[in-house]
Amino acid sequence: MNSNSYNTLFQHVHPYEPYLFPEATKLIVGTLPPPRFTIGELKEGDVNFCYGSRDGQLWPILNRIFDLDLKFENTKEAISQRKSFLKERGIGVCDIVARAERSKIDASDLGMENIQLRNIVGYLAKYKRVDTLLFTGGNSKNGPEYFFRKHLKLHDIALNVVSSKVPRVHSFEMPMVGNLEPRTVRTVSLTAPSGAANRAVGSLEAYKKRKDENPAFTTLDFRVLQYRPFF
């Protein structure tokens, strides 16, 4: 690394356009994939698609819930499997961060600076059947719910509590746009499907109780149980 590298911010651009289609009723909303996806230097076991990091747990969770027999490899077949599943289930993907800058090249949400957000409200106006947003993380700083709250304020839209238990559930009213009728959209703040969030999972009373009952119970098992009702 040359001496100027420390003064240059890494341009962390989201490598994937939102995966959206008219039949979508749910949207998975995260932040950014690891920087290696931006520069195209994938590791063995990565999949070149949304949430394709070999270190991430979203696709292993969905693989367990729906018995998908997914391939975890950098192939067109692995990508096709994921797209087909999402289309069949009416689930789109629209991460909220379009780009950010980093002084340290890692996947930490807290490390993002000069962040540009996608217009999720605009996408909701276009894709009229979406009634649920599934956040892959909560309201901690630079998490998807955190950014979405800031985004809603720009549109003067309030986020209302439905359930304060983990995973927290909120709702908001999409205003009338043109001939589009107003509608209620629900948000669910799932425990992040990342290894970094395992410590937070381990501190949850619900996880501790399960672990006490069954020492073989894992953080992945916990997420499978948490995610299943919302997918």
- Integer average pLDDT: 92
User: Total number of helical segments?
Assistant: 8
Q: What is the helix fraction of residues, given as a range?
A: 25-40%
Query: What is CATH's topology name?
Result: Uracil-DNA Glycosylase, subunit E
**What name goes with the CATH superfamily?**
Uracil-DNA glycosylase-like domain
The count of domains is 1
- The shape, in one word, is globular
Strand order of the largest sheet: 3-2-6-9-8-7
CATH class equals Alpha Beta
Q: Provide the gyration radius in Å.
A: 18 Å
N- and C-termini, Cα separation: 44 Å
Question: Would you identify the CATH architecture?
Answer: 3-Layer(aba) Sandwich
Please report the total strand number as a whole number. Answer: 9
Structural class: alpha/beta
Low-confidence stretches: 1-6
Strand content: 15-25%
Largest sheet: 6 strands, mixed
Write out key terms for the chains shown:
single chain; 231 residues; alpha/beta; Uracil-DNA Glycosylase, subunit E; three-stranded antiparallel β-sheet; 8 helices; 9 strands; 30% helix; 19% strand
Description:
With about 230 residues, the chain is of the alpha/beta class. The protein has one domain: Uracil-DNA glycosylase-like domain (Uracil-DNA Glycosylase, subunit E). The chain is about 30% helix and about 20% strand. It contains eight helices and nine strands. It has helices at about 35-40, 60-65, 75-90, 120-125, 145-155, 200, 205-215, 220-225; strands spanning about 10-15, 25-30, 90-95, 95-100, 115, 130-135, 160-165, 170-175, 185-190. The strands form two sheets. It has a six-stranded mixed sheet with strand order 3-2-6-9-8-7. A three-stranded antiparallel sheet has the order 1-4-5, covered by helices on one side. The relative contact order is 0.16.
